[in-house]
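Sharing in case it's useful to others searching the archive later.

Someone asked me privately for the predicted structure of Lipoprotein, so I'm posting the question and my answer publicly. Question first, with the sequence:
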Amino acid sequence: MNVKKLLALTPLALLAACGEEPAPEPVDTAPAEPVVSLPAPDEALFAEVFASTCPAAEPVSTSVCKRAMGAETVSCEFGLGEDTALRHDATLAADESGENWVLDNAEAICSEHDSHHVDI
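And my answer, the predicted structure tokens:
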């Protein structure tokens, strides 16, 4: 083979070699799993959770709940019965299913606010 033919075929050989590169990895385009998001606890939701968890306590008269950015729990201040002052504190957390709010440390919260509880 003479040199001119070899030089003429070199670019073709390089182009042919470029076509042999491995294909890029396929990108997974499946939709992400939906993220279940709990509703922001408002006064009505807190009152409902508190009443269902602590049925012997006076009803919630007022509440304010706050959730820090990225926090998994919500801090709530609330008043009971006729009291409209935010004298009590509780924390809401997601239940095991991640679909409902529950009182964190419910047993202690309920025993503290049981209307049949008498301090001596």
